[in-house]
Amino acid sequence: MEESLPALRQELQADLCILNGENLADGVGITPKLADKMLASSVDAITLGNHVWRRGEIVPYLKQSERVVRPANLSKRAPGRGLAFVTAAEGTEVAVMNLLGALFIGPPVGPFEVVDELVEEASKRTPVIVLDMHAEATSEKVAMARWLDGKVTAVLGTHTHIQTNDARVQPGGTAAITDAGMTGPHDSVIGVQAELAIRQMRTGMPVRFETASSDIRIEGVLVECGADGRATSCEPVRVSLN
Ligand SMILES: [Fe+2]
User: Fold this and answer.
1) Tell me, what's the pLDDT at 1?
2) Catalytic residue among 51, 134, 159, 161
3) Is residue 51 flagged as an active site residue?
């Protein structure tokens, strides 16, 4: 996938590329090596999610990384940052934030408890603000997008891995999609070899999951915005690498 990214980025004329990388390490978590590899292959910032601590070696990396963002609503004692500033190709500074939804994930702090302060902090430096809302419930992702309409550039949902058919620019100028989709093997059950996921569901027995390998696609969303941070378009991206 990382080999295809620079060409796709060029084709889309994207000034910035943000990747949710919480499933990079065989489906769960991220390692410093994988983060470095993606940051070297035209990714500007990496957001994470509920699997943030799955690989222990990422802890010291997160403490010093400027461009890998973990959810902002973790414990206040957790290492890493929930907000990062990166520079787009044409020089605009972009704030990148990451939050966990409450439903089924149960973060230490609710996303709505911290989001206003986070947006305020980001707004002091730049009007171009992107939130990766990593959540299970479509309602939470839609509610967050509505709450932030006119306050940020984009609220992009992740975690459920199925690209949703609701990419839009809201009336206040905030782009939104409930789920940006999955970059990975689509001949699968959200990345896992289908027969293993089905076996677990049919038997209720523990099954060791393996990552699938066919029908690889890059999925995401392309957002265009002005210098004022207001989005002007929001389009889903789906590219087959087969
Ligand atoms: Fe997740």
Assistant:
1) 76
2) 51
3) yes
